[in-house]
Specification:
The complex is a heterodimer of chains A (272) and B (248). Chain A is mainly α and 272 residues long. Chain A has a domain of 176 residues: ABC transporter involved in vitamin B12 uptake, BtuC. Chain A is 81% helix and 0% strand. Chain B has 248 residues and is of the alpha/beta class. Chain B has one domain: P-loop containing nucleotide triphosphate hydrolases (Rossmann fold), CATH 3.40.50.300. In chain B, the strands form two sheets. Chain B has a six-stranded mixed sheet with strand order 5-6-7-3-8-9, with helices on both faces. Chain B has a three-stranded antiparallel sheet with strand order 2-1-4. Classes of the chains: A mainly alpha (272), B alpha/beta (248). At the A-B interface, helix 8 and helix 9 of A face strand 5 and helix 3 of B.
Chain lengths: 272, 248
């Protein structure tokens, strides 16, 4: 049994583990809003639209995270702004923007004559996380956690009763854009760990599992964070022992936890 | 004259709106020649409506769906811009006395599946007095408990809001308005989808509130003879005021 945990003594595994846990925590905290405000599709779209940013950064030699952050935040603001206007239905607008941006990213990357980096972006490569990346991941985790704490009552209120929020002087559209920007930052760090395609899973699955056992926003965040941390450790170890991609192993762990919670739920009483 | 509650002003008020103190002898609500249109619409949904509501009055805005009742209430709550005319709440334009005004939306406009408890929803009535970066304190929670006990809903405080009946939802919205310390309550179709018994309970509650000097403006189309229930009835059709009847 101890042998199973042995890889954790390796320095690169420790960096990877720290990255996976931090990303898991950030994604699951924000994921509670993503699930309950029905923003899963936007999350997925944001992940895809970071590709051209990453591609341009790759070709020009700028930091990949910087390119992705720029593209993600720009899209977050664009989606937030466009969905206010109600000219096109929101999901249609997102569908158009994200497929277009993703295609643009693929075209730019194909000019770079390498497929290795594309695979890393699509599926993530947690073992390639450098201490520098880890600092960035940590900074985003702190920013997201602090923002969610300071804006907790406002984000909560605008989520279930935007009219009362507006009547007392809050602007639900601006809070939504703030949430989208936090989401963009989170997704950029998550891409390194579990890849662009599976990022939505880390946003949605732990939070959805939490919503099965608790009906309070703050408890949901705690439960989702615990689930994501377990998945990060278990997924990383499985990936090392079974030689499978870490991102996929982490996501599969969250899927299994969700499934078993669904099946076991009738046996337990809800905890609040 | 109302004995106004005093609330500490928030440190960082939402929307940068300072709380304006009411004019003591002004009517809770005074509307003159009011016209309101929805954003991006040129046709006014409310045209040249004037009326005044006195302290402790239970006033009904009656009319068919789409007559402009809801638009009128939203304009008073400061949710829609005014096209012409004026609104004064305790002598102050909307936005200044927003902490003394509570708009109770139609129940269908709230996401009842969102994971919050009844206590948390009622507590949101305190937010306008807290503003940014201030957490609800013990005294805010005490206010919630006191109001909930008064309205007979204290046993619901720890329930999730999805587990409530229509009548309970409406009581909780009233509780939030009271926790806010609102003097003027604007209720949008509170009787929608309620059975006769629940409706009567709610009317009894409204009478208690007006006895406590609260002013209630209720938009409704649920009564065949609203004159028997409300102090005053204003009928609205196609955005204009038709007739007004007063309970003898």
């Amino acid at each position: 049994m101890i042998e199973f945990f042995e890889p954790l003594a390796l320095p690169f595994m420790q960096t990877a583990l720290a990255a996976a846990i931090l990303v898991g925590l950030t994604c699951s905290l924000l994921g509670v809003y993503v699930v309950h405000r029905r923003m899963a599709f936007i999350g997925d779209a944001l992940a895809h639209t970071t590709l051209p940013g990453v591609a341009v950064a790759y070709l020009t030699g700028v930091s990949l995270s910087f390119g992705a952050t720029l593209a993600g935040v720009a899209t977050a603001i664009l989606i937030g702004w466009a969905s206010r206007r109600e000219r096109v239905r929101e999901d249609t607008a997102i569908g158009i923007v994200f497929t277009g941006m993703f295609a643009l990213g693929v075209v730019i990357l194909s000019r770079a004559k390498t497929t290795r980096n594309l695979t890393d972006i699509l599926l993530g490569n947690v073992l390639a996380v450098t201490p520098g990346d880890l600092w960035m991941i940590g900074a985003v985790a702190v920013i997201v956690a602090t923002a969610l704490m300071l804006l907790h009552k406002e984000l909560e209120l605008t989520s279930f009763d935007p009219i009362h929020a507006t009547a007392i002087g809050l602007n639900p559209d601006r809070l939504r854009i703030a949430l989208l920007i936090l989401l963009a930052l989170t997704i950029v760090t998550a891409i390194q760990v579990i890849g662009l395609i599976l990022t939505t899973a880390l946003l949605v699955t732990p939070a959805a599992t939490a919503s099965l056992v608790t009906h309070r926003l703050s408890y949901s965040m705690v439960v989702a964070a615990i689930i994501a941390s377990i998945a990060a450790v278990a997924g990383l170890l499985m990936s090392y022992q079974l030689r499978v991609p870490a991102g996929a192993a982490i996501v599969l762990t969250t899927s299994v936890l969700f499934l078993s919670t669904t099946l076991l739920k009738p046996l337990f009483v809800r905890c609040g | 004259m109302t004995a106004f509650h005093t609330h500490p002003d928030p440190l960082l008020p939402y929307g940068g709106r300072r709380h304006v103190h009411p004019e003591i002898f002004a009517a809770p609500l005074s509307i003159e020649n009011l016209s309101v249109a929805y954003p991006r619409s040129t046709r006014p949904a409310v045209r040249c409506v004037s009326f005044e509501a006195g302290e402790g009055e239970l006033l009904a805005l009656v009319g068919p769906n789409g007559a402009g009742k809801s638009t009128l209430l939203k304009a008073v709550a400061g949710l829609l811009p005014i096209l012409g005319g004026s609104i004064r709440i305790h002598g102050v334009p909307p936005g200044g006395c927003h902490h003394r005004t509570a708009y109770l939306p139609q129940r269908s406009e709230i996401d009842w599946r969102f994971p919050v408890t009844v206590e948390r929803l009622i507590l949101s009535g305190r937010y306008v007095h807290l503003g940014w970066l201030k957490w609800p304190r013990r005294q805010d929670r005490d206010t919630v408990r006191r109001v909930a006990e008064r309205l007979g809903i204290d046993h619901l405080l720890h329930r999730q809001i999805s587990e409530l009946s229509g009548g309970q939802q409406q009581r909780i919205l009233v509780a939030r308005a009271l926790v806010q310390g609102a003097e003027l309550l604007l209720l949008d179709e509170p009787f929608n989808n309620l059975d006769a018994e629940t409706r009567n309970d709610l009317i009894a509650l409204f009478s208690e509130l007006t006895a406590a000097k609260k002013t209630l403006i209720v938009a409704t189309h649920d009564f065949d003879d609203p004159e028997t229930v409300f102090d005053r009835v204003i009928r609205i059709r196609d955005g204009s005021r038709m007739v007004e009847t007063v309970l003898a």
